[in-house]
Amino acid sequence: MKTTKKTAQTMLSEAELNYQKAPGHWILARMGKRVLRPGGLELTQQMLSNVNIQAIDEVVEFAPGLGITAKLTLSRQPVSYTAIERDEAAAQQVRQYLIGPHRKCLVGKAEDTGLPGTIATVVYGEAMLTMQTPGNKAKIVNEAARLLKPGGRYGIHELCLQPDDMSDAQKEEIYQALAQAIRVGARPLTVSEWRTLLETEGFAVEGVATAPMHLLEPKRFIQDEGWSRTLRFLLNVARTPAARQRILAMRAVFQKYEDFLGAVTMVGVKEG
Ligand SMILES: C[S@@+](CC[C@H](N)C(=O)[O-])C[C@H]1O[C@@H](n2cnc3c(N)ncnc32)[C@H](O)[C@@H]1O
Questions:
Q1: Which of 25, 27, 13 is nearest to 186 (CA)?
Q2: Looking at domain 5-267, which CATH architecture does it have?
């Protein structure tokens, strides 16, 4: 099957997935993995506790994917929850968790949500800025700032490069290896570059925490997915050689660059 723009946007709903070309996260999702962010549920919990969602909050989530963090947010019963997801099938999945008024998941782009300004007290997004071009990263952070009320919090959870003084040549090597393995133009930043990105758009940064990039390591996998989902994932992978090949290639790159890849969360507070 040829990957067209349309199929790239609806990976979850395609009966046939092009295992050679599909973005790595949709291959993992098709095999049954639900947690698709680099620092796992532990860093997600850290981010949620730092943005401190409470019953008085109006929340916007960028790129909810399969809705795992959406469920955690909804359990805190915010006044409103609005998600903006580019993939139609993923958005449809998130909608299954949205019960009651002031809860919606729109198909759209985080860089241009079409939502009115200053409607949110909390905006967050995970594993979605890394895959954007530098220009789009800035646009998305700017959109978060536009949506937030003064004093509002913007949480991110992304892949990072370490150490901070990594050379441009090393960065380029890792970008190439990631693009080849996950078939997405992933351009992670160093922790200080992520900080600068948020500060440039007017945020005061706090709540910085990091974790190893162990997305495909057994201990993290079981922590994030539980035993039974992990076993089902392994069975699915065993039955699907083309997916197995891609997943092993991704894991090999993550392991090769283990010392240089990490996960980071931070919170930007919109100055009021
Ligand atoms: C790696 S997955 C992460 C999903 C989820 N946030 C998680 O951590 O499990 C990336 C998600 O970002 C979405 N996405 C990528 N770029 C986007 C954009 N510009 N606007 C909205 N969604 C986007 C993709 O459709 C996909 O659901």
A1: 25
A2: 3-Layer(aba) Sandwich (3.40)
CB distance 143 to 78 below 8 Å: no
Q: Which atom of ligand 1 is nearest to the CA of 87?
A: 25
pLDDT in tens, 110-141: 999 999 999 999 999 999 999 999 999 999 99
Ligand 1 centre to CA of 125 (Å) is 8
Dump strand ranges (E) for 127-218.
148-161, 189-190, 203-212
Tally the C-alpha atoms within 13 A of residue 21's C-alpha that lie toward its C-beta.
Answer: 12
User: Quick check: CB of 267 below 6 Å from ligand 1?
Assistant: no
What is d(CA 104, CA 60) in angstroms, rounded to the nearest whole number?
10
Q: Could you tell me the pTM of the whole model?
A: 0.94
Residue 31 · residue 233 · CB < 8 Å? yes
Inter-CA distances, 136 with 89, 132, 161, 230, Å: 23, 6, 19, 34
85 CB near ligand 1 (under 6 Å): yes
Coil/strand/helix, residue 108: coil
Distance (angstroms) between ligand 1 centre and the Cα of 247 equals: 19
State pLDDT tens for residues 78-92: 999 999 999 999 999
